[in-house]
Structure formats: C-alpha cells, structure tokens
Specification:
alpha/beta; eight-stranded parallel beta barrel
C-alpha cells in the first residue's frame, strides 16, 4: 500500500485506528475453545466486527509463535482472511525483527514475500545494514522502533550523549538516510504525550505508529494535539482495550462498540485538519 492510498483510506473512513490482534489463547472467551482453530475463530469475529471502524490491523507475532506450528497456522489464516475479505486494510506484522544483514534479508523474505504483508516493525539498534534489506521491497513499509511506551524505555531510549541528543532522536535523525516517508514509519508510544513535539521536529512528515492508547492509558487527544500532521500522519493502535472488551459471547459486539467509539473520536480530530 502506498502512502497516498493509506491517506485516502484514513480520510474516507474518517479513522486512523489500528486494531492490535494480540490474541492470547488464555484470554479468549471459553466457548471458542471447542473450535478447530480457536485463535483464528476469535480473530475472524473481531475483524468482522471492527473492520468498518479501522484502517489497519496489527497481529503481534509473539502471540502466534507461542503456539508453535499451530499458532503460526492461525497467523497465516488471519492474514489470508484479511487479504481476501478486507484488502484495503493496512496490515502490520508486529514482529520487531532486526539482525545482521543476511538474517534480516531472510526476515524480509518471510514477511514481504511469503506472507505479502504491508509492513513490519523493525528494531534499528544494530544499524543500517540490519534495516536496509527490509527497505528493498517496493510498496512495503518498515516501521522502526523509536520511542516506546514501556517503563524500560528510560534505560536507553531517553539517555543523552555529550551534545544532549537522546538516543531515540539519533535513531530518528540517522535512519532518514536509509528510507523516506514513503516507506518508513516510526513507533512512538502514546504515553509520551508532549514528547511528540520533539519527534515531529525531526520527522515532520513521517507516519507514526502509536501504541498505548486504551489499556496502557495513552491519551488520543494528546497524541493528536502534538503528533498529527495535515495528512494525519498517525496510525493509533489499540489492542487489549478493544479485543478483550468482553469475555462473554458478546465479545465481538463489544469490540465493535469500542472500535466505533474510538473512530468517532478520530473523526472529530480529523475534522480539525485544514486539507
């Protein structure tokens, strides 16, 4: 999916919501456990209920890899379901890959050739040669980890060098030599609030994938106030707050209601943009 196609989807649907498919076999409703593939059954119903209100889905690979071969079959079935029934939705494989060049080449082949997914989260801390193989696929996106929403981000990402430049700022600045705003996005956690101002000073036009809204306590209004651009420039993810809105048989209905509520907030924010 190109940048312009993504922007058109956002303004057509009046949403920049990304639904995180962090599907845990221990958290899905009990009545689904009798299904042949409980994880896929859960995902399919969540997708059908939320698709009108979002533009993107983000399956987190850890939740599928934890199930071994069966889990990866569920992942593949989920991807194929999205591509068949909802081809306009932008798919993010949240895998946080990143290794020496030869290994990254294999990771890129896995997600961009075998699964044909739109984008992949990548850890940039091994440097340019660990990221470049992912950027060699036209129409595919690399989403670099820049400033995450977990407490441990203070350990490294916010540390400054002798000139006062923080590590996440160095990542933003240097990585722009590798790609551009047509093939590279950045992960910036919603719990960082006004730090989006610092991010936008360095990457004013890149899309940002923003986790942390919902269960992690991030504020959508703050994210938009400090991070939104005239083309939106945001994909805001909510995972647990949507997919686990109910543990009962009404789980898909409740997920749809949560997604719709977020979409309505996003629509109001998009109306503020002078296009």
């Amino acid at each position: 999916m190109t940048r312009q196609e993504l922007i058109e989807q956002i303004f057509t649907k009046k949403s920049f919501l990304c639904v995180g498919l962090d599907t845990d076999i221990k958290k899905i409703p009990e009545h689904l456990l009798s299904e042949e593939d409980p994880i896929f059954a859960f995902n399919r119903l969540i997708i059908d209920a939320t698709a009108p209100y979002c533009v993107s889905y983000k399956p987190n690979l850890a939740f599928y890899e934890s199930g071994g071969v069966k889990g990866m079959v569920s992942f593949e079935k989920t991807i194929q379901y999205l591509k068949t029934h909802y081809p306009q939705h932008f798919i993010v494989a949240d895998a946080k890959r990143g290794d020496i060049g030869n290994t990254s080449t294999m990771y890129a082949r896995t997600f961009f050739e075998e699964y044909d997914i739109d984008s992949l989260t990548v850890a940039p801390y091994m440097g340019e040669d660990s990221v470049k193989p992912f950027l060699s696929y036209p129409g595919k996106w690399v989403i670099l980890l820049a400033l995450t929403s977990n407490k441990g981000s203070f350990d490294f990402q916010l540390t400054a060098d002798e000139s006062g430049e923080r590590l996440f700022e160095k990542v933003l600045r240097i990585s722009q030599r590798w790609g551009d705003d047509e093939n590279m996005m950045y992960v910036v956690g919603a719990t960082r609030g006004d730090m989006f101002l610092d991010v936008r000073k360095i990457v004013p036009n890149h899309f940002l994938l923003v986790p942390g809204v919902g269960a992690q306590g991030g504020s959508l209004s703050e994210v938009c106030r400090y991070g939104m651009t005239k083309e939106c420039g945001l994909l805001v993810n909510s995972s647990r707050g949507i997919i686990y809105a109910s543990q009962g048989e009404d789980f898909a209905i409740k997920a749809g209601e949560k997604a719709k509520a977020l979409q309505e907030e996003m629509s109001a924010e998009l109306e503020k943009i002078a296009r």
